[in-house]
Design brief:
Length: about 210
């Protein structure tokens, strides 16, 4: 079993502190009535075949996105701000979805995909994702493997030019909604707010059920 180091634990505590600060800032911030509503993708776009590894070193492919709804977020564990903030909102959204009367909404899968494979081995990713929720899945792969998926979705990522181990990775801050056919149906730009995000996902599930 992977046991986080003292440095990793410190990093996780730092991420949680940032998320708490962000939550407080969100609570007192003015609301945008369109925040969390998402941008629909019409027609839904089938994802390319891709090959990643999950936190248990098992294959994570398009097959793992079929048969249920999924929320994808691309980031990395050393991300200083947007990643812990978004993961915190996704955790709260997941809790709200579990309260839904709709079984498909309760089964929504949240997947954190690292775009920094050099510093984010599967075991570390598993611990990072489950720090926010035991229900979360994590995955990563080589830069080429990641690009197959991100290009298919329309997400971006690139390592910035700093030298050494403390480099940053630029990446999309959107959350992406994937339907049970592994098609992209919506994206939710930052900042995401848990109640609006959960409500939008439930609406998408209901709309899909009504048209199927």
């Amino acid at each position: 079993m992977f046991l986080p180091t003292a440095r990793t634990k410190k990093h996780f505590r730092y991420a949680l502190a940032l998320a708490c600060i962000a939550a407080a800032a969100w609570w007192f911030a003015p609301r945008d009535e369109h925040a969390g509503a998402g941008v629909r993708v019409q027609p839904p776009r089938m994802l390319a075949d891709f090959q990643l590894l999950d936190g248990d070193n098992q294959a994570f492919t398009r097959t793992q996105l079929q048969g249920h709804w999924s929320l994808l977020f691309f980031g990395y564990t050393h991300c200083p701000d947007i990643c812990p903030i978004t993961m915190s909102e996704l955790a709260k959204s997941s809790t709200l979805l579990l309260r839904s009367e709709d079984a498909a909404a309760r089964a929504v899968q949240v997947v954190f995909i690292s775009v920094d494979p050099a510093r984010d081995p599967p075991e570390l990713l598993k611990n990072f994702a489950r720090y926010f929720s035991e229900r979360f899945t994590a995955a990563t792969g080589s830069v080429e493997q990641l690009t197959t998926l991100t290009d298919s979705i329309g997400a971006r990522h690139r390592r910035l030019t700093e030298q050494g181990a403390d480099y940053r990775v630029e990446h999309s801050s959107d959350v992406w909604l994937i339907d049970p056919q592994a098609r992209l149906v919506a994206k939710f730009p930052a900042p995401q707010h848990a109640p609006e995000l959960a409500r939008s996902v439930i609406n998408a599930v209901h709309t899909s059920a009504g048209t199927s």
